[in-house]
Amino acid sequence: MINPHTAAAAQHSRIITALGSGLRALGDTGRSHPPKACKTCRNKVPAPKPQPLNPIFKVKAIKFGLLLFLISALFQSCAVFRRAEPPAKSEKQIWDEVRKECGVIHDFWGKCNITLETGYSVIPVTAEVVFREPDWLVVRTSGPMNIKLVEFALKGDKFQIYSPFTNEYVSGHLDSVDFSTAFKAPVPNIDIRTVWIRFFNPLPPDYKITNLGSYGGDYVLMYESEKVKHEIWVKSGKMRIERENIFNKDNELLGYYTFSNFKKRSGNIFPRKIEIGDIDGGSMLTLEFGIHKINEGVNESQLNLIVPPGTNRIYLGGF
């Protein structure tokens, strides 16, 4: 007598075996290798011959490989070019060539858009900029509908500021005033005279030079005063100043100027975009010049601030 439990177990085993064989056969249909022949006829199943590669595919593969090689070689050559060091030059040679290439601006008049960016706002205004050598600079700002905002003038180490909104006229010594504190304005607390000197009349700072080297194809000159360090970047080949970083004695970046979008006019190379950044104060001032005139003369009326009677005058010394 057959034990029903043994028969059920045998039936279950045959089902599992058949299911496994079916799954293996199904898997074999998706594989690239040939199915196995039975033992009695294995020798009768010929092995598949390898198919020759399509000649067209061969050509395309060779072209693609050649293209990758050329691209790789191009990138490597560009990297080598970027790392190429400029020819060695002395400090005097660098500044002489900068002045020769950029020229000297004796007087300047131009219109520009000014954008003041702080941590919480962006303030756009338009401005008229007037300069006459050696160090007289006037900026008149206006808002929408040509409404006059603030006018200020720099002459040597003295400044004047007139604001029709507050009905105030302030004058004083530039070296003794922190504008962002004294006037509660989020403007970069950077000596703006340095900005104009760098491109109006490029001369080395009146500080001790502590390093002259190169990086990425540019000349890098480091000057050190009692309080700060000035790192000036001169573009090799074009010999023009494109950046200046200002550090404290602990080599912490305090601020920077960048000059870009250069254009040649009246024999002078002029940067039509200037950025002035104050890292510590968290603000950046961008000037983008449109129409401008170089060395065509400016008259006295363009340089003087007109302060109407009744204005509250605050004297901090000077003028």
Give an overview in words.
There is one protein chain. The protein is of the alpha+beta class and 319 residues long. The chain is built from six helices and 14 strands. The protein is 26% helix and 38% strand. The model is unreliable at 1-42 (pLDDT under 50). A 14-stranded mixed sheet has the order 7-8-9-10-11-12-13-1-2-3-4-5-6-14. The termini are far apart. It has a single domain (91-316), classed as Lipoprotein localisation LolA/LolB/LppX (outer membrane lipoprotein receptor (LolB), chain A). It is globular and about 80 Å long.
* Beta strand count: 14
Global Rg: 38 Å
Can you tell me the residue ranges where pLDDT is under 50 for at least 5 consecutive residues?
1-42
Overall geometry comes to globular
- If strands are numbered along the chain, what order do they take across the biggest sheet? 7-8-9-10-11-12-13-1-2-3-4-5-6-14
Q: What structural class do the secondary elements suggest?
A: alpha+beta
CATH level-3 fold name: outer membrane lipoprotein receptor (LolB), chain A
Helix content: 25-40%
List keywords for this structure.
about 325 residues, alpha+beta, outer membrane lipoprotein receptor (LolB), chain A, 14 strands, about 25% helix, globular, disordered N terminus
Q: What can be said about this structure in brief?
A:
By secondary structure, the protein is an alpha+beta fold. It has one domain: outer membrane lipoprotein receptor (LolB), chain A.
